[in-house]
Write a structure and sequence with these properties.
- This protein has about 600 residues and is an alpha+beta fold.
- It folds into 4 domains: about 45-285, Collagenase (Catalytic Domain), CATH 3.40.390; about 295-400, Immunoglobulins (Immunoglobulin-like), CATH 2.60.40.10; about 400-450, no CATH class; about 450-595, Sandwich (Jelly Rolls), CATH 2.60.120.1060.
- The strands form 8 sheets. Strands 21, 25, 27, 28, 29 and 31 form a 6-stranded antiparallel beta sheet that branches.
- It is globular, with a radius of gyration of 27 Å.
Length: about 600
Amino acid sequence: MNRLLLVSLLIISSQRVFAVDLINETDQVKAATKILDAWHDDQPERGDRFLHIVCWTPSDRELPTDYQPRLTRMMEHIRGFYAREMERLGFGDRSFNLKYDDQKQLILHTIRGKHDTNHYAVQSGSEIRNECLPTLEQAGIDARQETILIFCNLATWDAEQRRFTHKSPYYAGGSFRGGTAWQLDSPELDSKNLILKQPIIRDGQYGRISLGKHNSIFIGGVAHELGHALGLPHCRARPDEAARGTALMGSGNRTYGDELREEGLGSFLTLAHALRLASHPQFSGSIKAMNDRATATIDDLSITSEGKSIHVSGVIKGEPPVYAVVAYFDPEGGGDYDSTTATAVPDSAGRFELSSDALRRGKRGELRLFPLHVNGSAAGQMSRTKFRYPYGISDDGMPDLSAIQLRFDLAPVLDALARNDQQAATRLAKSITSKKAASIAQHLTQRASPTQTPAEYDGGLSKVPLTSLKPESSEVGWGRTAFDRVPGQSPLLESAGEIFETGIYAHASARHVYRVDKKWKQLTGKVGLAAGHGGTVEFEITGDGKRLWKSRVLKAGTLAEFNVEIEGVVKLELLTHPTDDGPASDWGLWLEPTLSKQAN
């Protein structure tokens, strides 16, 4: 089946939704461009920003053969991809900027590492970057304020045996102001090879694949990680977008150039990400207000269900002005790779509306709204937005917005707490009518600390929240101990799309010790990571030094339940451990831990 026929069939199979979406996209691009152009043309401040490219090699290796012309071809191919996608969507020929020497070859900053190959590994990104900083500084480049792409010479290519392995850092992060992407380089990676169905090579990670597919994966990887360095989060294609191929910032790093070998539709840039890039200083050619702090508020926010869709509307106000709103619907699990997007451009009064039915059935998720500011700001990566709302989707596809309603019920109390107005927060908490919201508000506003340990408890209840009792000791890996709240701007005990009434903040490494003196029979509850934090942790319960229960390794968006017999235990310990990736973002939570005097 030829590619044109395949595309036609895919468009037909998506019925009229795809055509309607195209019209909607065109209107949004025109409206967004009008706002952007008007703002940048008023007292313009033009300026060229460039992608700075580093070729780094360990002390015992030379750089790969013909690296300069080969990387020039590769980066021009990727630049062309971004330019074509921006133009396809109606933004014109916009892309990132490259610097050339007098021979029209890329300017590459070559750096030799301090150690030999054996010293470095996938986790060596920060160390390698630090080794690059002095050379970049000598060239007048501040890596904190520029976009940097580091090609790491940590791959092994055996041309005779056609075998490939690597241990290179392969990740990225950044924003409209600057970022860093780490990539690998190897002599067989060349945009000219994207068309090759032969020879077949053996890739240490992907097995037996064609040389062309190998290039798709790793050149596509450069395009994908560069997207992160420019500030783009992950997302996948919605069903109505699938006729275009695979979203670059989903798994499109593995399909880049597949269409050249007639092996698929290749990769594409979603409107959500093209909208973000339209204001990026590299793509806009403007540095106006680039260093200004962006702020935004949403008034009259409404999040409702309409059939199997979630509909969002409100009035957005921002400084610098907001020209678009991007929504990410991110189901639990899978990181944010499987999030889908919806977009809207506000009218002259700031009102916007968007909706989506591209929602994973049987999954909880989180809706994140990102205001896009004309200076390029979009609050960075996926977790960095204050506009976050949990939802659920039933097995038959119907949205459950009860957690969002709970957040709305608590909004006045949360706003008062954010202003440090404890008196107003306490007053507002008493006016809440929803039972669960009222309970949470009470926990957030009460100041009194428990006075009795579990061993001293003399009340008549057979089930008692653990947080209503006094621990013998508490230690956390970051910040201060906190009960029935999470430290920081958002105190809600929110994890995996649920909001809980009671809980213990336990950033790894954490240890909470309770004296129970054989008075209790059971401890139940759940564990997870606080919403907005992407670490990995393990939870453990011990009784008198003996392990009673241990969780699997938990990531963001997942919960584990525990039901532990503690009859005969004197000292109970709740432990939260970091994993192999270290303690960064390990905001562990013990959720609704409850002591019972009778076993279930």
